[in-house]
Amino acid sequence: MKKTKFFVILLVGLFLVACSSGERDGVTVEDVWGRSAPMSASNAAFYMTINNAGQEQDSLVAASISICDVTELHMSSIDDNGVMSMRQVQQIDVPAGETKNLEPGGLHIMCIGRQADLNPGDSIPISLSFARAGEIAAEANIKEP
């Protein structure tokens, strides 16, 4: 009985450390958020700050959000005529010792085919995949538009 209890406590402890660290190989993810939206808006965007305190460049190569049919990395831009466009990007590079901001009107994570309302105060789990740091779990706070 004592061995079983010890292993359960050990496993729970390891799980909590893995989920709460938010840092791997010098990469940290902070201020993750999205805007509130009703189900009538089938897509949503998520933003964050990625810090790379490591010695080598890393790249965000994928993201996963359970409430989305598809999750993609995107870049919004405005051309010389003032026309905004958005396109998928394969990765978001974060050079060593630098910070990359994912923000409205620029880089972001696109949730396509959203399956749940996003209400202010909600917290949505996001899994981020980095080329070097691997998987980092984050929680997106939903804010008023």
Summarize the SSE layout with pairings.
Elements: H1 2-20, E1 23-24, E2 27-35, E3 44-52, E4 58-65, E5 68-78, E6 84-88, E7 92-94, E8 98-102, E9 107-114, E10 123-130, E11 134-143
Parallel strand pairs: 2-11
Antiparallel strand pairs: 1-2, 2-3, 3-8, 3-9, 4-7, 4-10, 5-6, 5-9, 10-11
What does this protein look like?
The chain has a single domain (23-143), classed as PCu(A)C copper chaperone (Immunoglobulin-like). The protein is globular, with a radius of gyration of 17 Å. The chain is mainly beta. Strands 1, 2, 3, 4, 5, 6, 7, 8, 9, 10 and 11 form an eleven-stranded mixed sheet that branches. The protein is 13% helix and 54% strand. It contains one helix and eleven strands.
Instruction: Report the top-level CATH class.
Output: Mainly Beta
Write down the secondary-structure element order.
Answer: HEEEEEEEEEEE
Named CATH architecture: Sandwich
Report the average pLDDT across residues. Answer: 87
Q: What percentage of residues falls in helices of 4 or more residues?
A: 10-25%
List unreliable stretches of 5+ residues: 4-22
Q: The biggest beta sheet, please?
A: 11 strands, mixed
Multimeric state of these chains? single chain
Q: Termini separation (Å)?
A: 52 Å
CATH homology-level superfamily: PCu(A)C copper chaperone
Dominant shape:
globular
Output the keywords:
about 140 residues; mainly beta; Immunoglobulin-like; eleven-stranded mixed β-sheet; 1 helix; globular
